[in-house]
């Protein structure tokens, strides 16, 4: 695996910490900004919305720009967004800083994923993407719990300053260690790349990714108040449980990345099904501390076990447009990261309580299983059709009489 892929994974560590650390900072942010916890939870959706919009937009805008220069510019803007969040005096400005950071983060993900798969053979795509996702997993193991710890002891703004510092380190790594990636001899044509959206398998991959991510982050976004208000754990337990979720995510990414290239649909179905079951378990046992803690760890494993396969599936069905494929995957994940917290906040505001986020998430995951099943059937049917076509002898030419 090229060193540049690991540098991208380290950069994703900073991006992922910023994206998910707010889930452990909701109570102090809500208190400081004078908003409700569901309103503070919209900061997670704000980041996700920025990712949804920014991924395809920046992928298109940077299609013909040098890859390394683009990555340097994006990580710089992202770091400045963290500084803006740390200094934000109002909820509105904090919200805006999250969107700006997300736009840069989305572009980095899209371009970085395209760079990663360009440096490895086709049969190593899932492993290369697993390295990048591994940065996200480590962010959940270390970055997110550390953010919650800083928020508890030094105030939530200190977590934003810490991510700003990590972004500076990532900038140095990208500028010095990512090699110059030559642009294709034939310049990418936007019209040609946009053709991938004619393929129904692309849209099924988008739906599956969004639903699978949304199901998990419907509850993950409100895990801190669930642990303290429902399970009765002390605030000091929040970083620990977030760390356990992240540890599970790292294990899931590592194992899923090893199997996804050879057993893509098997990884998808088993991972999403396991997440659905675990969400149901949390819904039933939200008031039992040991059950919630254990299920949170296992949910990290199952959710990220399928992540490399979700990424690889999009590149497999949209291989003719690798940049837009990466952007579409990023947008799809963050459609889930937008809809999940929104749905979780909606059921909380409706009076169903924090445990209801687990049931809402399970419903989203169950629909994701259905979309994977449809995609698998279409895949098998198309493969059978190709086999039949290749085995049918071509008709012999008819010679005209002399």
Q: What's the helical proportion of residues?
A: over 70%
Look at the structure and give the mean pLDDT: 83
Listing every helix as H and every strand as E from the N terminus to the C terminus, the arrangement reads HHHHHHHHHHHHHHHH
Largest sheet, described in full? none
Taking all Cα atoms into account, the compactness measure Rg is 22 Å
How many helices does DSSP assign?
16
The end-to-end distance, rounded to whole angstroms, is 63 Å
Structural class: mainly alpha
Number of strand segments: 0
Outline, from the CA principal axes?
globular
Which spans of ≥5 residues are poorly predicted at pLDDT below 50? none
Approximately what portion of the residues adopt beta-strand conformation? under 5%
Offer a few descriptive terms.
mainly alpha, 402 residues, 0% strand
Characterization of this structure:
This protein is an all-alpha fold and 402 residues long. It has helices at 3-21, 26-33, 37-61, 67-87, 91-118, 125-154, 156-177, 190-193, 200-220, 223-230, 237-260, 264-285, 289-305, 307-317, 322-349, 356-391. The radius of gyration is 22 Å and the shape is globular. The mean pLDDT is 83. It starts with a helix and ends in an 11-residue tail after the last helix. The protein has 16 helices and no strands. Helices cover 81% and strands 0% of the residues.
